[in-house]
């Protein structure tokens, strides 16, 4: 039995989107899975009613009277609202009553609450978000995608470990290549933190480090020194590039629709639009905490929530959490 | 008479590309313009010969026996090679014998040499590169695009001034809106430098500051607080996003070609491909130095060089250099 807790109050259009996403997910999941909707019971009940015929046998509703807003300061929100949907949802996992938590709410609050309540694996300095970037070759994990706006070199090395285990387990790539995002490939490029991280990564056992990579190498999925599966960067630049990419996809889609209205009905167009639509990718894992946590876009549609459930299930099934614990505890440069 | 000096030895395919770009530019420019090709005379002569029939009346060749490589450390290269094409080309401008300098060579070396030889305008702490990002609405200037990998808050405010004057003069937009690239729009978002810059920019006279903007707002050309013409960031994140954008354009173009081979001959396709092709935009200005300097992509084709000449001419004609001097000397937060 795998149980997925879903913050029903997180997204811009909560709880409608979360409830609809949960219902869609249950239709696709085989028996043996439960979804736990966490939030204001009355609001969730109303949203469920609007969904019509719902299989309630595998759906739990868990009361959490408080809601953390998008603009709230993370730590203050976590401490001041112990009965928020974020705290209650993570609490289920802490108490062994759930296997994963998904939220489209305040990223900083989810990260702070997960770090405080689930704790970090031994050897992990900070948790990080790892969104997958779709490319024309293979998806590339960028870590950190926005959880940590200031990072030191050892934290960046830690992200390399976290990303490598995720890609190995969840994407089933045995030897993921790791690049360090920089302004050029040469040793002397970058700011002080990145220069130090570059030297540390070269000596880190267990990481297949391909070297400094540039912004253009992410979507190429390779640089001249090898294949890239994981790109390490601080959360400031990772967040900027991630959001930029989403908007570039939307812009190109809009331009294409305007330029070639006659091709939009073709299957190739549908495939391309699906590629460009971030909601297909269903949120990004928060890696490093003891547990399974997925953070979704605040503007997620129901499809994104449904896909996040799929990713969460996959993370639980592939034991990425336990494998991160084992890898980081073994040592390496992250300590 | 406007004289444009062109580093003939900078690009990955120098001097062929530079010579071809110069010849193309001269064909389009009205009388009264000269191009000064700076580099190894023998190599330039050979490349000119390969071009066939060339109007030499408005083309000078200026000998510079040394070449700065892409991998060389900027300051060491500038001090160790006083007769490089970069140093000689900038020297012409310093001596009043040229009005602008264009190079597709080592960005760090061009910036270091320009700062040392032309000096910075009073009130400018650091020069910055300002690439224009094409969008579906209006081009947006991102500054810094890669010259400074570490910036403090006052330097970011300086970039806001530089970018504002450029957009006002060269793009003819009287009141450019300035956004600060951040991970969220709220006051408390970002790292320490960006938080401080946000507070400083709010109080800076002469800047139409619209607030924190996110990666997705760049291509939208607006955020909820207004129109965005200039996006301020440090050169690390600016460079990452710039190079990422170029590669995203190439990727989308490739996917479109594969999905819809039958539409590629249409005028709409040509227009879209032109939009996605960075070489149409012809390099980025290095702003803050006393003079006109344009930095091109190392992989520039001849068309990009030709377009850089056009941008340089426009910068000279609109007196952006003098206007930056006047604006920054007047004071504002840059001091």
The helix tally of chain A amounts to 12
Helix percentage of chain A: 40-55%
What is the domain tally of chain A?
2
**Average pLDDT, all residues of chain A:** 94
Helix-and-strand structural type of chain A: alpha/beta
The topology string of helices and strands of chain A comes to EHEHEHHEHEEEHEHEHEEEHHEEHH
Question: Which CATH class of the largest domain in chain A applies here?
Answer: Alpha Beta
Q: What is the 3D form of chain A? A: globular
For the largest interface, the chains and their residue counts are: A-B, 51 and 51 residues
Q: From the structure provided, what is the oligomeric state, counting identical versus distinct chains?
A: homodimer
Q: How many beta-strand segments of chain A?
A: 14
For the record, the CATH architecture of the largest domain in chain A stands as 3-Layer(aba) Sandwich
- As for the CATH topology of the largest domain in chain A, it is Isopropylmalate Dehydrogenase
Low-confidence stretches of chain A: none
Superfamily at the CATH H level of the largest domain in chain A?
Isopropylmalate Dehydrogenase
Biggest beta sheet attributes of chain A: 7 strands, mixed
Q: Report how far apart the termini of chain A are.
A: 35 Å
The proportion of strand residues of chain A reads: 15-25%
Radius of gyration of chain A: 20 Å
Description:
The structure is a homodimer of 335-residue chains. The first copy, chain A, has 335 residues and is α/β, with parallel strands linked by helices. The first copy, chain A, has 2 domains: 2-124 and 288-319, Isopropylmalate Dehydrogenase (3-Layer(aba) Sandwich); 126-279, Isopropylmalate Dehydrogenase. The first copy, chain A, is built from 12 helices and 14 strands. Chain A has a 7-stranded mixed β-sheet, sandwiched between helices. In chain A, α4 (85-94) packs parallel to α5 (107-118), α6 (153-170) crosses α7 (192-202) and α6 packs across α12 (320-329). The radius of gyration of chain A is 20 Å and the shape is globular. The mean pLDDT of chain A is 94. At the A-B interface, α8, α9 and α10 of A face α8, α9 and α10 of B.
